[in-house]
Amino acid sequence: MKFEINYKERLYFGIMLVISFLAYSYLVYTMFLAKSYIYFYIIAFLLFRLLSSLFLIGYIKGNAIKISKEQFPDIFDILQNHSQILGLKKTPDMYVLQGNGVLNAFATRFSRKNFVVLYSDIFEMAYEEGKDAVSFIIGHELGHIKRNHVGFIKSILILPAHFIPFLNTAYSRACEYTCDNVGYNLSAKGATSGLLILAAGKKLYKKIDLSNLINNAKDRPGFAFWFSELFFTHPHLIKRLAVLNKLNRNNLDLENIDFIIPKVKFKGPEIQH
User: Fold this and answer.
1) Considering all CA atoms of the chain, what is the largest pairwise distance in Å, rounded to the nearest integer?
2) What predicted TM-score, i.e. pTM, was given to this entire model?
């Protein structure tokens, strides 16, 4: 399956890779100067990462419900189908976890094995409202796996660059655009509703006037709109919706998409595509 990789994802990753290479080079240099305390910090950090991952995976396996051929087979079919289309070597394990009202999902990796976790309210929506939106959300999370956003080695490679202000969050936002594109190509019909459910909930999202929501973005202060986004790992919802709307306008199969509204221009920085 073809999908668009956000160009800023590659740009920011390249910048982070260069910065991290320089930082690691300096670290190796200082290690040769026999500063033994550096070894302690490296070992402590790796041990912390290991214990954190063990805790998370152990909590998921001990408290979540694993989706399988026997347990929610219809959702498992979506997971398998998306994994095959993306060319994943192995279908990730997927779990449903009680989120206490939180509408979210995430992907992670541990011990060379990939995991997708859906919070229970998202999962309930699949049976109350239909599976298209959940299909998009699953596709989005599989996009993180396909692009290796959750890989341990990749995260270690660019770790020093995380300390550069705003660089890591900018990279993360670009990755989110890429994964939205993956989810869209897997489930265009559920893309817009999938994002709105994450923002407004599984009941209220139906009452949102999508055209009004996106068009009103033109009236928002440009600098404040841009500045607030710098601190977050996810782009503003309105910008993500506008990108999906552009994809909808370019999609000739109009029966398989959520909505189309006129082209919208934002004040300030352009929308990332």
Assistant:
1) 66
2) 0.87
Give the phi and the psi of residue 134 in degrees, each rounded to 5: -65, -35
β-partners of residue 109 are 114
Share of the chain above pLDDT 70, in %: 88
Q: What element of type H or E holds 71?
A: none
Q: What is the model's pLDDT at position 104?
A: 85
19: closest CA among 175, 164, 169? 164
The tokens for 92 are 């990730």
* Least confident range of 135-139, 141-145, 154-158, 207-211: 207-211
Distance, CA of 15 to chain centre: 20
**Alpha helical stretches, state H, 205-263:** 210-215, 222-229, 237-250
Burial letters for 74-91: b for 16+ Cβ neighbours within 10 Å, e otherwise?
ebbebbeebbeebeeeeb
How are beta strands 105-110 and 65-66 bridged, if at all?
unpaired
Q: pLDDT grade, residue 206 (50/70/90)?
A: confident
Reading the block at residue 118, the tokens are 């859906």
Confidence bin at 223 (pLDDT 50/70/90): confident
- Residue 222 · residue 268 · CB < 8 Å: yes
Contacts of 29 (CB under 8 A, 6+ apart): none
237 within 8 A of 195, measured Cβ to Cβ: yes
Per-residue pLDDT, averaged over 24-40, amounts to: 75
In angstroms, the CA 126 to CA 19 distance is 43
Angle at 24 between CA 20 and CA 26, to 5 degrees: 120
The sign of the torsion formed by the CA atoms of 157, 160, 161, 162 equals positive
